[in-house]
Design goal:
Number of strands: 13
CATH superfamily: Luciferase-like domain
Strand content: 15-25%
Largest sheet: 11 strands, parallel
Helix content: 40-55%
Protein name: LLM class F420-dependent oxidoreductase
Organism: Mycobacterium asiaticum
GO molecular function: oxidoreductase activity, acting on paired donors, with incorporation or reduction of molecular oxygen
Number of domains: 1
Keywords: Oxidoreductase
Number of helices: 10
Pfam families: Bac_luciferase
Shape: globular
CATH architecture: Alpha-Beta Barrel
Length: about 290
């Protein structure tokens, strides 16, 4: 299986720095660059960021980590992805989630109250049909489309990955997705998540590629800053922060070994703390590019 490491950009990455980041990653052998859905921040929109990075490079892959699908019309999302894939074949890595991780941003992705999961389910079906079929039609509770003809269709079809860590998310991934990009999970939880996804896929008569399981991880440049540890405790009070955010690169390598043993092979690594991003990129290249196979 192919082990790959990409860099995830955070909320503080200003657009004026993006050109330098992209050029550095392209020239350094980094596999991929990932843009998060961060509406109320300086970070660029994921689709805009992917288009910009693809236009400046010939090798670097780009992805969303993760973009919110419910609240967007899936046909328009399909058109955007198909356009990117036509301009940069085999370099577009879409991953979607149920909702924003930031509560204040959830109101901008409008769906009927209490029905976000159902909307997500239908959105994924429409998205996949639009990307694969010459003339797609779908009639559901939330979407009805006829004769959708997104062109040019990506060949081969784009793999659609999903985030999530609940039992319902694992069922959704096994039933509708091509891969999983988890987050905020221990290696053992990730192992259990992979197993649950594979069971759901088998129940649906499907098989997720063994190479299509990954996780987003964070690393600090040394000891965890207290504000980072506090944020982790708020989200996962049942887990010691150091289990989820690596306190230094040696700790990250130990975490990676454990996730690899759990069956994950794709990693999005993002920095936390106040260290300069250029220093993080230098260390990422030094520590991780050689671990790819």
């Amino acid at each position: 299986m192919k082990i790959r490491f990409g860099i995830g950009l955070g909320a503080d990455t200003a657009p004026r720095h993006l050109a330098e980041i992209v050029d550095r990653l392209e020239s350094s052998g980094v596999d991929s660059l990932w843009f998060s859905e961060l509406v109320y921040s300086p970070a660029v929109d994921p689709m805009v960021g992917m288009a910009y990075a693809l236009a400046r490079t010939t090798r670097l892959k780009v992805g969303t980590s993760v973009a919110v699908l419910p609240g967007r019309h899936p046909v328009l999302v399909a058109k955007a992805l198909a356009s990117l894939a036509a301009l940069a074949p085999k370099r577009v890595l879409p991953a979607f989630g149920l909702r924003s991780a930031i509560p204040a941003e959830r109101e901008v992705f409008v769906v009927p109250a209490g029905q976000r999961a159902e909307v997500f389910h239908e959105s994924l079906k429409v998205l996949r049909a639009a990307l694969i079929e010459d003339s797609a039609s779908y009639a559901g509770r939330f979407f009805t489309v006829r004769g959708v003809a997104v062109a040019p269709r990506p060949v081969p079809p784009l793999d659609i990955w999903l985030g999530g860590s609940s039992a319902a998310a694992f069922r959704r991934i096994g039933t509708l997705a091509d891969g999983w990009l988890g987050s905020f999970l221990t290696p053992e939880e990730a192992r259990q998540g992979r197993a649950a996804i594979e069971r759901a896929a088998a129940d649906a008569g499907r098989c997720i590629d063994a190479d299509h399981f990954g996780i987003s991880l964070a690393v600090a440049d040394g000891e965890l800053p207290e504000e980072v540890a506090a944020a982790v405790r708020r989200r996962r009070p049942d887990v010691e922060p150091g289990q989820l955010v690596a306190a230094g690169w040696d700790a990250l390598h130990r975490q990676l070994d454990a996730y690899l043993d759990a069956g994950l092979t794709k990693f999005v690594i993002r920095p936390v703390g106040k260290a300069p991003l250029d220093g993080f990129i230098d260390r990422f290249v030094e520590e991780l590019v050689s671990r790819q196979n």
